[in-house]
Amino acid sequence: CTQLAQACDPVAIACVDHDPPEMYSCLCPEGYTGNGKTEGEGCIDIDECVLKTPQCGDAEYCFNTPGSYLCISTKILEGNFEPTWTPSNMPSKT
Asked: 25-42: per-residue pLDDT in tens?
């Protein structure tokens, strides 16, 4: 793989040598699919929100991120979010 350093998608986490030396495979990280090769399909982000795999709550919106997802309160998105921390109960920075 050292001669083929450019052969794997920049997102790929590993290049694995096979025998013969021209044969190799690239591994995509969790949250991605594909063959990981720059000459192939590369590493493609899996949109967990479209696949309905996240366990977001009823009052949460699923937001896809590279290789993962976030569950965001619909109150934040509607602009009705009020912080629950006040100066008296704010966590310390220790």
From this structure: 899 999 999 999 988 889
Cis peptide upstream of residue 66 (ω within 30 degrees of 0): no
Q: Using CA atoms, how far apart are residues 48 and 70, in angstroms rounded to an integer?
A: 10
Residue type, 14: A
Structure confidence by residue, pLDDT tens digits, 63-73: 899 999 888 88
Q: How far apart are CA 43 and CA 13, in angstroms?
A: 10
Tokens of 49: 């929100």
Choose among 82, 75, 1: nearest CA to 38: 1
Question: Which has the closest alpha carbon to 22: 7, 44, 11, 34?
Answer: 7
